[in-house]
Structure formats: structure tokens, C-alpha cells
Amino acid sequence: MAKQATYRPEHLHYLKMLAKQFPNVQAASTEIINLQAILNLPKGTEHFISDVHGEHEAFQHILNSASGVVREKLDELFGTTMTRMERDQLATLIYYPEEKLEEIERTVPDMREWYRITFHRLIEVCCLVSSKYTRSKVRKAMPPEYAYIIDELIHTHYEDTDKRDYYENIISTIIDLERAANFLVELCGLIKRMAVDHLHLVGDIYDRGPGADIIMDSLLEYHSVDIQWGNHDILWMGAASGSRTLVATVLLNSLRYNNLEIIETGYGISLRPLSVFASEVYKDCDISRFKIKFTGDDEKDYTEKDKRLVAQMHKAITMILFKLEGQKILRNPSFGMEDRLLLDKIDYEKKTITIGDKTYPMLDTDFPTVDPKDPYKLTPEEDALIATLTRSFRHSEKLQRHIRFLYSKGSLYRVYNGNVLFHGCVPMSAEGELLRFSIGCNELSGKEFLDYADATARRAYYNKPGSPERQFGMDFLWWLWCGRNSPIFGRDRMTTFERRFIADEDTWTEPKNAYYTLYQDPEICDRLLKEFGLEGEHCHIINGHVPVKSKKGESPIKGHGKLLVIDGGFCKAYQGTTGIAGYTLIYNSNCLRLVAHEPFAGKADAIDDNIDIGSTSSVFERMEKRQKIADTDVGRLLKEQINDLLSLLAAFRSGAIVEVHQD
Fold it and tell me: Are 465 and 474 a contacting pair, CB within 8 Å?
């Protein structure tokens, strides 16, 4: 006689809960069959992008093209039946369907015939990009109003004569009802949706370029994304949380790089209080050290009066920032940043400053709001101004929506399908040991410290306003932004003060953490991977933050292939140094492929002339066999679900749980 199976109470309770979803042997068996089938599908394509820095047009183009994946599919399907010019136009249509369609309608005499041919081609592309997914997943990705029609079209066998007439009739009806343009836009959207299964954004969405808010709007609508916070993202997260210091830093960066559009137009934050304060308090001051940086032809839009006002605003917010940073350092001795207290080291009579054991001449000591006896104290007017500006950041509905998304989809690092992703570094000593930190914690290092830092960063936004926990969280966000050996800053110090006021460029250096030298060593990379629970041939560290200087021969591949740096200079301000306009990474079921991009000519040129971003794609690592979902993190979860369902089947068959059959 078979021995009766026994169950722990908690296990039986779980199985009973599972039985509410799968109430009998048939339902559980069907789900096991479905999950087993999914495990044998090819792994979905992952797309990695880093350091976009507000360059919204280039970002959107990379997103639309999936770093060349869409064009690759067009070449695969139509390489022998369409000219390069025709494929270029079809690619642009998929990237920008509404805009491209307007141009085509002006030049094509027979739009009915054009729609008929184009729909056939787009359906072929749809079939190809959706072939690795279950029919159910593809159906869920379809626009609801066209889901039935698209499902029929992509699963029709055109060689079947009866089906061919059915297919053609569907297309003709769409055109007759004047829904062709709308249907085409939705079809192109589905192609882009299916070309990439998941997007990883490895930090620094904000600052430098003008359209970080536009990028955030795109990410809000993206089907599957995770974000690893960069130092510039942390900066905006802190400003939105109510950190006066980080509000001042955001404004300083935006003024310095003439990037005020995101503040005023993007997020509706008025800078009038700052302009009024600056024009009054700094009207007779030396502002020669605070001229803003222009890119391209921007300067022609500014009068000399405008330039002077912006420089006054820049100086005003800079002095407020230095005071607030000093207060933060004094309030948090555990940050170990007392050497960054510089306002009290100025000799106003001699116009010099003493840093360590050296004295340097100051380029500017015209600071009307600084009291040498109490240099870190805000004047009443400064205090009122920064309070007003901080309230504006806290009350910007759009900014708050974007920052909530950064918190919900973001983290300091992510372990995903055998790769660990982070923006900056894992802080290390020169000897290759993990640095230990005691900042509100007790001697944490490596993954443990990153986990602690992630949780503390969330306290800044989610803890009760005015509470000590929230205040420390906001202080900690500032430390993450610029603190010594912070995991997303990765440098010894930030020398904003020295660059502004000291001519000796030796004082401007910002020494990098030893990580950025040690990561060339594959043994170090293996140790770091193990720190995050990863080991094996196809495990990697994927990094952003420090632009790869390609024109000087630097490679994005470090540690004999264990580590990849994918910051190649998306931001226009960096492209003179890097020589390219960014790296991206594609990880599909067959290989990992690095893509180096040339500068983007702009959306208008892309639409008018079918100009794609010039890209060079190279297979970095090829898999011995095609990766299946069974080999991924999702696959492991599905296997756990299968095991649970097998336990439920056993419980049904043993009588431990009674089946329910619905009529």
C-alpha cells in the first residue's frame, strides 16, 4: 500500500491558495504544458543604453532602431528584393511612421498601391520579430483596436490561395475605410515593441542635453525597462525629494550648460525669484568666472544683457551651494569630507586660499553674501530664495511623476541574466580590497553597502517630510552625488570650487577610485562578479559613467571581456573627447553585440533623407548554443512555478486537496 504523502501546514496552505487559480488536474496540467513550452522559446533580446544625458533625439532614434536590430531584420528579409534606398525608407518609416507618412503622401501619386505593398512588407517584418514569442505574448502587445486583424495577418499562410484572398480583402478594407494611416502607425509600433524584449538604462538620463524630461516620458511608455541610477539621476532625485543642496546643484549645472529649458518649460519651475535676487545682489559683482557654456549657435539668441543676467544667476546659486554643502559636511562627520570645507580657508585681504599646506591666489573673492566670520551661513534672502526654489521642485507634478518612476524602476545595481549592471563602480582600495564604509552603517562593503545605499536613497523620498530619517536620506543622496569614493561618483573629490576660483590646474584633478584601474584585471572582475552571486564564462559587469575615449584607441572591453563600459559619449559635450556618440549593447539568444554610434544628424535629417545613425556593430561574444528562456532568470522562475504545480498535481492525486470541476 502506497504511503500517504504528508505536507507541512504552511506548504499545504500555499498549495490550497494555488488551487484557487488551478482548481483541478486538467487546469494544473495545462499550465505545466504551457510553461514547459515557453521554456523552450529563444531568449528575448535585451538592449543596453547608458549616459544619454538629455540627448532626446539621439536616444529616441537608438530606441526606435533598437541599435540596428530593426535594420538587420529588413536586410535579412529584403536584402535581395529591395534596393538599399527602399530599405532605408522603410526603416525610417518604422522609426518615425507619422512624420515619414506625411512626406510620402506629398510625393507618392498612388497611395492605395503604396499602402498595399507597404502593409505586405510590414507584416513580414512583424512575423519575423515576433517569431520567438508565444502567440499570447504577441497578442497582448498588439494595439487592442487592431489585435484581431494583426493576429490574423501575421498567422496567415500566403501560399494558401483561399487565405491569400482573405488577406488581401483585409488590407483593402482597411484602405477603403481610410484607416490605413492609423493602422500603419500601430503596425510600426508593434515592430519596435517586438524587436526588443527588455531595455536596460545604465544611468545618467539627466543633465547636459536639453530633453531629459522627453526621455523620461518615453521610458514611462516603454513596455519593459529597468534603470540603474547614475550620479546625475541621483542629483534630480534629491532635488525632487526636497534637498536644498541638490536643488542648488541642479540649477548650477543647468545654468552652467545653458540648459534651462528643462527647468522652466519641461518641469514648469520658475527661475524668476533667482533672476531677481541675482540681478540685485550681484549687479556690481565680478562675474567673469561664471560665463555660461554655449553649444552650436545658441549664443546668437542671447543679448549681452541676457548673458550678464545668466552669469549673475550662476554665481548666486554657486555661492548658495557652497554654503549648503559646508552645512551638510559639518552635519555629517561620517562623510569624511572636512577637507572640502573651503570658504573658511579664504584670506580676503590677500585674496588667497590655503588648501592643505599650500596657498593659492584666488581668481575671484567678490562674494557679497559671504560673512568671513560665519561663511557657511545663508543670508535671510538666500535662505528665502532656496526655500522658494525647493518648493517649486517639490510641487512640480511632472517632475514628481518622473522621479517616482525612477524610484520604482530603478536601483543602484541590477543582476539580470548573468550580468551585473551598475553606473559607477564598486569602490576598491589600491590593493584590490573592497572599501568599507561607516556612513550611518557599520563597516559595509561591496554588495552589502550597495544594498544599504539603495535603501537609504529611498528614505530621502518616502520617509515622512521633516523626519530625521528623511533628512539623512537627502544628505546621503548628496554624498552619493559627490562624496569621496561614492559608488556612483567613483572619485576622491569634486573640484567645482577649484575650477571656478583657482588658476592652478593641479588643484582641479578628481582622482578616480582604484576600481577604474583594477577592472582591467580579469581576476578582479571575477571577484566582483562573485560578490553579486555570478560566475561562469558568460557573466559580465556592464558599466557606464566614464566615457570611453575611442579616438585615443581605448576599448570598451575590459578585464579580458569580463567587463563592458557602454558610455561612449551620447552627450554632445563629450564627443570631442570620445570621438564617437555612444556605445550600446545588444544581447540576443545567439550573442552579445557592441554597437558604436556616430553623432546623430538630427530627427529632421533622418526623416527627410532617410539618414540613420552611422553605427559599427561587432559581435563581442557568441554563445555555444542558442539561449532559451530556460537559461534566463525568468526561466528559473518558470521552473519554480512548474515544480509548485507538480506538487499541486500530487496533492490532488493523493487526496490532500480536493479538485473542483466547474460546469
Answer: no
Cβ-in-10-Å burial (0-12, 13-18, 19+) of 76 comes to exposed
> What's the pLDDT tens digit per position in 265-297?
999 999 999 999 999 999 999 999 998 877 666
Q: How many other CB atoms are found less than 10 A from the CB of residue 106?
A: 7
Looking at residue 3, its pLDDT comes to 57
Residue among 653, 656, 663, 655 nearest 28 (CA) = 653
Q: Which range is least confidently modeled, 157-166, 216-225, 236-245, 601-610? A: 157-166
CA–CA dist 435, 430 (Å, integer): 10
Residue with C-alpha cell 530599405? 87
Nearest-angstrom CA–CA distance, 132 and 628: 10
What are the start-end ranges of the H helices in 395-487? 397-409, 446-462, 468-482
Mean pLDDT of 601-610: 79
C-alpha to C-alpha distance for 570 and 582, rounded to whole angstroms: 5
Residue 1's pLDDT is: 42
Q: Which among 404, 55, 423, 406 is positioned nearest to 214, based on CA atoms? A: 55
- Residue 178 to residues 109, 115, 169, 173, Cα–Cα distance (Å): 16, 11, 14, 9
Query: Could you read off the pLDDT of 202-237 as tens digits, one per residue?
Result: 999 999 888 999 999 999 999 999 999 999 999 999
Closest alpha carbon to 596 in 546, 550, 563: 550
Half-sphere exposure of 529 (CA within 13 A, CB side): 25
Grid coordinates representing 169 are 480583402
Which H or E run contains 200?
Answer: strand 198-201
- Residue 41 grid cell: 522559446
The alpha-carbon radius of gyration of the chain (Å, integer) is 29
356-392 pLDDT, tens digit per residue, is 999 999 999 999 999 999 999 999 999 999 999 999 9
Strands, E assignment, 356-468: 358-361, 410-411, 413-416, 419-422, 436-437, 444-445
Q: Model pTM greater than 0.90?
A: yes
* Beta carbons of 445 and 453 less than 8 angstroms apart: no
